[in-house]
């Protein structure tokens, strides 16, 4: 019998966090279950910092469906299995996960809902090995969580990117320029590819296809020869040239087990190279955190609500240690073991390693075929 559940939101913020939180709370309330929210993700769980959540007129979860961000905050790079602490004036890293387990038991929480991407769900799986009942909900604008067709927050990010392309179109056409838009997508090019199709871009460079800048330039020159003196290029932040590597803007000091690289700069590089190769002026716009913020699209509101309600339904059924997923248009669940794949070492959270089970664009995907069919150059 479930009496009390808790929610944590973890990783980079996305539009849809609050819609999932609301759906879990409402489904819990309809079954007389108390709902708590840990503040700032796994950090809040470690510190046992939580609030009671409710949707009555005077409670904190009222009117949050269209609201971006997370009313209970979120944390990035908070790996409780390798957490930074100060000892004798020096930073050291320790496994503090047992404190999280103690907090969950002390608070009499029957199920913990983890809203997040691959790193969040890896920690969820590791907590499940310590006897905690966990149910994950797949979140990331990169759409790269394994075992599900789509994550919440992704559609909103694509919509923002497509809107940006529409706006860049008018400037590019007016001034006869190449307009380069750098979008998020560390190791998966879903945003770049789908927004390129939605916005009518001419070139899309994604992490899964190391690009030949000469091929991209050839596409633009061909357009110029046909009287089209402007082009739109969409570049994922993790795109890399053939025989090259991703551009790392900076490196964080958050210890092992998390991805400490901060990407950025490939858009400017591509713009400079294309200007030299084509003779057209090129400008780069980095969309950045605009993709994460603001109100979720109707699609994401519905998807997030489906995910939240399904997660609570799974808890009521006693189906724990799973991830809610969307497969072939239907809600389902898969084991967290399937989600982490070969990334089985406890404490190793995320990153583009051979063991990481990220969902990437494949050359057989309909988006790739569609892009090629309509003449979008993918840099190969």
Structure description:
- With 380 residues, the protein is of the alpha/beta class.
- 34% of the residues lie in helices and 20% in strands.
- The chain contains eleven helices and 15 strands.
- The protein has helices at residues 17-29, 41-47, 97-106, 118-128, 154-175, 190-199, 213-225, 266-278, 298-316, 336-340, 366-373, and strands spanning 4-9, 34-38, 50-53, 83-87, 90-94, 111-116, 134-138, 177-183, 203-205, 231-236, 248-251, 261-263, 281-286, 322-327, 330-335.
- The chain has a seven-stranded mixed beta sheet with strand order 3-2-1-6-7-14-15, sandwiched between helices.
- β6 (111-116), α4 and β7 form a beta-alpha-beta unit.
- The model has no long low-confidence stretch (mean pLDDT 94).
What is the overall pLDDT average? Answer: 94
Low-confidence stretches: none
Strand content: 15-25%
Per CATH, the architecture of the largest domain is 3-Layer(aba) Sandwich
Shape label:
globular
The number of helical runs is: 11
Integer-rounded radius of gyration? 22 Å
Helical amount: 25-40%
Would you give the CATH topology of the largest domain? Rossmann fold
- CATH class of the largest domain, anyone? Alpha Beta
Derived from helix and strand composition plus strand pairing, the structural class reads: alpha/beta
Largest sheet: 7 strands, mixed
What is the straight-line distance between the termini? 56 Å
